[in-house]
């Protein structure tokens, strides 16, 4: 069972989320995707996977998909 704030999201979930985000991206609608599973460091891996999925799914250059800084 996933543990809140600790567990990584599954590849299947991330791919479904990427498909949903792609709809907004192709319509030039700004979107945010924030992973709060930082307690075990899983957020970074999930964010990098999401960036990769979106770059594969969209026609946009990498600079259109940004990973922003984390706030304190």
Short descriptors:
72 residues, mainly alpha, elongated
Describe it for me?
It is a single chain. The protein is mainly α. It has one domain (11-64). It has 2 helices and no strands. Helix 1 crosses helix 2. The chain is elongated and about 35 Å long.
Total number of domains: 1
What general form does the structure show? elongated
Question: How much of the sequence is in beta strands?
Answer: under 5%
Terminal Cα separation, in Å?
28 Å
Q: Sheet bearing the most strands, described?
A: none
Mean pLDDT: 85
Structural class: mainly alpha
Low-confidence stretches: none
Order of helices and strands: HH
**How helix-rich are the residues, as a percent range?**
40-55%
**Helical stretch tally:** 2
**Strand tally:** 0
What Rg, in angstroms, do the CA atoms define?
12 Å
Structure in a nutshell:
The protein is mostly helical. The chain has helices at residues 11-26, 42-57.
List the helices and strands and how they pair.
Blueprint: H1 11-26, H2 42-57
Helix pairs in contact: 1-2
């Amino acid at each position: 069972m996933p543990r809140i704030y600790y567990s990584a999201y599954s590849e299947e979930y991330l791919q479904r989320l990427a498909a949903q985000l792609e709809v907004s991206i192709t319509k030039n609608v700004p979107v945010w995707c924030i992973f709060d599973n930082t307690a075990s460091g899983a957020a970074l891996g999930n964010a990098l996977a999401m960036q990769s999925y979106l770059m594969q799914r969209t026609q946009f250059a990498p600079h259109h998909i940004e990973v922003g800084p984390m706030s304190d």
